[in-house]
Structure formats: C-alpha cells, structure tokens
Amino acid sequence: MHCNFTTIPQVNKVKIIFTGRQMTAYGGFALIAAFLEQIGFARMIEKAIPITECSPNSMGVYGKTIAFVAMIFAGAERFSHLVYLGNKEVLAKMFGVRRLPAAATTVTRMFNKLKNLKTAEMFSCNVWAYLTQLIPWKTIQKDWLTFDSSVLVRYGEQEGAKKGYNPAKHGRPSHNPLLAFLNRSKYVIHLWNRSGNVTSWNNILAFFDASYKRIREHIKVLGVIADSGFYLRQFIERLEEEHLTYIIAVRLIRPIQRQIYALTNWKEIARGLAVSEFSFMHPPWGRERRYIVIRQNIIRRKKATGKTLPLFAHEVDLKDYRFSVWITNSEEEPYEVWTMCKPRANDENTIKELKEDFALGGFSMKRFYAVEAAMVLRTLVYNLFVLFRHEFLGLKEKRQHLKTLRYKYFVLPAQMGRDGREAILRISTGNRRVRAKISYLLFRIRSYIPSIDHNCTAVGYT
C-alpha cells in the first residue's frame, strides 16, 4: 500500500528528502574499471566463457560478468546480494556497458549454461591463457608449486554436495575443491571442484599434471609442497619421474609413530626445538625414502605445532612433545627442509582470503559445473587483485586484504554528471591524502602497459 505524505520527515532537525540524481556508494570502483580496461578484460571474457547469446536485447557476457565482479568487490556472498550495488546505471557507465542485470537470476542463468565438464574446462583454460600474459613471470622467476584442498559447506541440494570430512559442520554436505598455488607469489594457478565425500588426494595425479603444465614453461619450479592429505605413493612416484624436489607432510600412522619413538639422534636447534631423520619403506612402496622429523616442547615453545604419538600416550617422557613429519627427496639438512616447507602456511592464508574476501564458499547453484565456473571466475578476480596490489600499491598495502582496501579506496560516494558532452564522475572525499592517492593510482593504471597480446588466439577456444 502506497501513501502520499505531505510532511517532510526529520531526524535530529535534518530534513529527509529523495533525489533522482545518479549516485553510487562505489566511486572507487573507477580504479577497478580503469584497470580492467587497461588489461583488455572485456574482450577476453566475451571469448573465454564458451556460451552464445542470441537475443538482440541481451546485455552480453561482459555486462553480466561485470555485475558479478562488482558484487565480489562490494563484499557479496550470494547472488541475491546484487542489491549491494545500488544504482547500477552509474556502475554501467563506469565499466562501459549498456546496463547491468536488474535481477540475480540473469547472472545465474549465464553460469547454468556451462552444463558439463568440457565447457567448464574450456572456460578454465581460456582464463589461464589470459592470466599467463598478465602474470609478471620475469619478476617471479622461480617458485614452489603447492597443493591444498578445502571444505565448502552447502545447505541445499546442489549436485556433488555430499557428506564427507567436514571439521566445522559435522554431517553437513559439502564440496571439496582442489587448488594449486604459486606459494611465494600467492597466485592460484588451478582449481577443480569435487564432491564432498572424496579424499584429499582424489584425482591429484591428473590435477598435478594439469597444474604443472601451466607453469613449467614460465618459471623454474623449485619443487612441490603439500600437506598430509597428499601422502600417496603414486603421487610421490610421479614427482620423482619429473625430477622435482618434494616435501610432503606425513600422517602419523602407527608405523611412523614407531619410527619416531625409536629415534635417538635428535639435534637441538633452538630452545624446545629439535630435528631428526630416518629412512623408511611401507611394504608396498618398493624402496626406502627419507623422512624429516621436528620435535617441539609445548612447555618451552608456547606456539608449538604438531601432534602427539597416541600409540605411546602412556610414555611420560613424550607427553610434553609434539611431532611433525615430512617425506622428502631433498638433500638439505633437516632443519633447512623444515624451513623450506614452513611458507606452506601461505596457502592456508590464501584459502582464508579466498573464503572471506572473495566468497569462495558462496554463490552456490544447483548445477555442479556452474558452481565450478563461478569458482574459477572468483579465482580470476583474486589473481587480478593480487596483480593490482603488486603493480600499483605500496609495500605495506601489498599485504592488505580486500576487506581492508575495500573501505580504503573502493567504497567512496560519487555522483555521475556531465561536463558538456562528456560524462564525469565526482567522487566525494574530504581527505586530501585519499584524493591524491586515487589520482596517483589512476595515473599509474593509465600508464601501465600489460604484456597481453590482444590478437592472441590462445583465448577463445569456443
């Protein structure tokens, strides 16, 4: 029921009225729009998503994708959060599209057109072909290839949402995506979605081959680091075939616990920290391999990591110690091996950033490959954000997450107007430093010359 009120409401003697002017809360998105324009994002995405739109009234793949990207930068986690964008006319002009979707179903229909493995894989390959031209390989030069998986809880009846290992929500269905990273530079180089009832190492051989193929021609791969979920004979043998150094965490199963208990050659490295090593062969594995052990005293080291030895829980001498074990073919000293694998925590932080800032576990849909395609697009946005930080932000801000930078540079009120025949965006900020910073960033972005080849045929397998 609509009522016409003649009395103007007031709050603390401030009159509340309405305006039809084109305003937005996201004036800082001009930085994103300028960056995407500079790197040829519109041209790429129209080719990369393997769908065809026949309607003459369609806004195109780019318009729908921009709405999705803008939702991510605005902090959305569901398609219904399209309302976060507010006045879409301003954003449409900012990003150079005719219009943005008025309903969330417009975006979900686009993803639901990716119905099978072939189209999802095609989209992923197209996206990587594009990223390959943007990532500063000459700066990176060398890096570790690392693998991890994550549990994404689901609350509906999505395809592939099965009950499996779920430490946060026991008994809830989930998806269990597999991810590959460049450990030091923090780029996500590959992602496969999987059902929630699979083990961590499920399909790791094919995933390793696909991931390694993506980077082996661009940088020197220092080796592979992975957690205990990938402690698998076939995976280790595959790495040895490629002559790659590997450091893989080991589950403390009973034979390993017995080997640790028998160790006497502990070398004290620091207060409460000792290292050792042993050679061991599981009967089906065919030969012995090298194992590195770290022992930490929980009394002397308050942040000690590792696990106890349940098989020897009755031993008083072991109750204050926590143990961690890795299998490796590195010839470095045990402490050096441990030092090399410690940065694997970067992967955990990257997954956390993907979940909290880029809604990796959000934007769920019924169809399995539509969900995977949306994940791939979010990892693309994440990688572009990493590139943006690397190229344009200062040393301190390079470590800041999107949720920090969002309210620093992106959430700034602005009004769209005209100066003669030219559209003009007036960003409102009384802080001179912010004005100077945004002007500086826009200048830097405009002078940025990506190495991308707009005539390259690597993108566009459709």
Describe what is shown at a glance.
The chain has helices at 29-38, 41-48, 60-73, 88-95, 104-112, 117-134, 137-140, 204-215, 233-241, 254-261, 334-341, 345-357, 368-392, 402-410, 432-447, and strands at 10-11, 14-15, 23-24, 142-149, 152-153, 162-163, 173-175, 178-182, 188-192, 220-226, 246-249, 267-270, 273-280, 289-297, 321-328, 414-419, 422-427. The chain is α+β, with helices and mostly antiparallel strands.
Describe the model.
With 462 residues, the protein is α+β, with helices and mostly antiparallel strands. The chain is built from 15 helices and 17 strands. The protein has a nine-stranded mixed β-sheet with strand order 9-8-4-10-11-15-14-13-12, sandwiched between helices. A three-stranded antiparallel β-sheet has the order 3-16-17, covered by helices on one side. Strand 8 and strand 9 (188-192) form a beta hairpin.
